[in-house]
Amino acid sequence: MGADGNVSFNMMAGLPERPAKGIYLDNNATTAVAPEVLDIMMPLLTDHYGNPSSMHTFGAMAGDAVDRGRERIRKLINAQIPNEIVLTGGGSESDNLAIVGTLYAYPDKKHLITTSVEHPAVLGLCRDLEKRHGYEVTYLKVDGEGHLDLDELRDAIRDDTAVVSVMMANNETGVLFDPQAVGGIVKEKGSIFHVDAVQAAGKLPLDVQALDCVDLLSLSGHKLHAPKGVGALYVRKGTKIRPLIVGGHQERGRRAGTENVAAVAGFGVACDLAAAGIEHENTVVRAMRDRLETGLLEAIPDSRRNGDADRRLPNTTNISFEYIEGEGILLLLDKLGVAASSGSACTSGSLEPSHVLRAMGLPFTLAHGSIRFSLSRYNEMSEVEYVIRALPPIIGRLREITPFNAERSTF
Amino acid sequence: MWNYSDKVFDHFMNPRNVGEIEEPDGVGEVGSMACGDALRLSFKLDADERIAEARFQTFGCGSAIASSSVLTEMVKGRTLEEASKITNEDIAEELGGLPREKMHCSVMGREALEAAMIDYYQRLGRGVPCHLLQQETILCHCFQVTKDTVRDAIFQHRLKDIEDVTNFTKAGGGCTDCHHDIGDMLRDCWDKIERGEIPAPAGGPLVELGAMPGNSQPATAVADADQDVVGRIRELLANDISVALRNDGGDIEFVRYQDNQVFVRLTGACAACRASDATIKGYVEAQLREFVNEDIVVIEVDK
């Protein structure tokens, strides 16, 4: 009993001390801007602040910076020519431009296909197209491991299917779809194939010349250590799209608006760094992820990994902890300076837990207690070891409070 | 990141009265893991029939744990009669306020208290005195849908089965625990409909599976001159306002229009939300005034 007559309970009891520096394991949400990225950006914000469209040296320097940035983005995905790269304000805009731009280009086609586990940038748009614009959308299902059924896709494509939009890597689970297999079916049937590669870029090799079935591919700067507010859409030469933002000649009429010069230059450098770091990502980062996942699953009873173990991003793990809810875990991790995210309903502000985990058939109970850790090259094994020490007592404290356990899972 | 008050954080980091009471006088259990939150509240009375001790166990987010914790402090030393006057708003206020999306956590506290009181009287072999109960309004705990909302939807749209009810109101779309209650309500409502007690809605019954509440037809016919205005109101409600509210787990239904007065009904999370006045005046009315007519007044029905 405490002094006030209440039975006291301290959430922090038994937890390790907070480390001197925060531990950021939410890199699928956003990433730190790389120092090299900031270096190239600063002069473009201070001295070389011209408008690329202007007829003077200020403008020319800015224009050169945009050209160099575009060329570096091109190289990351091995596009054939720089003009295939349309600069945008981010991944969501790229997705919108890809899908709506295609629908504008093929006004007679009224059907589109996507998956039930896409990023909200695609899913929300599709719902809007259905509700407000009379389009018909097919949402492909996934199995318990997070994979698509290609036969379902084959059956779903129609003569009036304008575009099929399928992500490359899932942001919540890291599970990979196979764009070559999906795209082969799409091109057989003559639709446009859009790939949201926002999470895959920088973590997996990308080659749009090898992936010859891909017509459109979305990229985002801030997922690979460039700043927020810049992205790109790869538009394969000869692919028709109509602009969403009009009123300027920029991006060859496909996206009006003065270029975000510094951010584009930074995005370019980030792409160079990403390309150089792919091996590191798939060895060192993967090893840290694997250690984190194995360490947590071994230390914490009634926990399970969500999504296919092998066919997924090297930096992502999504784990469900039974009998407790994700927000409490995040709040306590945050007290220790550890940043992660959850598929629980409470953390999203809606009443429904992660649509991705639900689509995989996870019961609500497991979806509410899911935590995603996503690493980057800036993490260290010592940070992973800290989390492996810190999380078991956090889960333990919350399980002391919950009315549920292995013997009793309902009232 | 939620904007939790210091007091919410205090009660989350140092929850009071965690656990179970041995030989309790009353135990209340509400919610489920599927819903995302659940609370088990037990209490023991002293010789003066005041709550001597209250304990909780909670599955849920930070504010659910904090709401449960603060509730155990609030009831202590009170008689059941006194404790029964604690509303969910009181719980939220005691915590220094809760984010709008988290008000349902305080509702769960109130529901558990009520369930524990009912249990206490059952143990004595007596019915709970009605005046101790606030109207038990929530039917679907997962999506915080009230009985009134479900009943109105059944009458208005002549809904036939649970799936219809879920499509129109979201009720029953989560843990499915309330399917039994929805089934009872469907039977009860259709008894009334078949006995002719409930007149058919204007324009005939509307059963469109998958339709959203925002698309429902008005219950009353409107004058031709108003048709255009009503069309614009409904379009704005369905295309913009409803979409925005659904992001918060709620929704809005158009009820009727008369002399610049727009009658609406909030559903889902919005229906149970203490901030619904702010939603109505600050958002819905502002939108309608901006895009339809400056003189519009929005009135929430079934509050």
Structural features, described:
The complex is a heterodimer of chains A (411) and B (303). Chain A has helices at residues 35-46, 57-77, 91-105, 120-133, 150-156, 179-188, 261-299, 326-335, 345-348, 355-359, 364-368, 381-401; strands at residues 23-24, 85-88, 111-115, 136-140, 161-167, 192-196, 216-220, 231-235, 303-305, 316-321, 338-339, 341-342, 370-374. With 411 residues, chain A is of the alpha/beta class. Chain A folds into 2 domains: 23-33 and 277-399, Aspartate Aminotransferase, domain 1 (Alpha-Beta Complex); 35-273, Aspartate Aminotransferase, domain 2, CATH 3.40.640.10. Chain A has a 7-stranded mixed β-sheet with strand order 2-8-7-6-5-3-4, with helices on both faces. Chain A has a 4-stranded antiparallel β-sheet with strand order 9-10-13-12. A two-stranded parallel ribbon of chain A has the order 1-11. In chain A, α6 links the parallel β5 (161-167) and β6. The longest helix of chain A is centred in the C-terminal third of the chain and has 39 residues, at 261-299. The model of chain A has no long low-confidence stretch (mean pLDDT 95). Chain B is α+β, with helices and mostly antiparallel strands and 303 residues long. Chain B has 10 helices and 8 strands. In chain B, β4 and β5 (145-146) form a beta hairpin. Chain A binds chain B through residues 2, 5-12, 128, 131-132, 323-328, 331, 335, 344-347, 349-353, 363-365, 368, 400-404, 409-411, and chain B through 12-19, 29-40, 55, 57-65, 72-73, 76, 101-102, 104, 142-144, 174-175, 212, 239, 243, 247-249, 268-269.
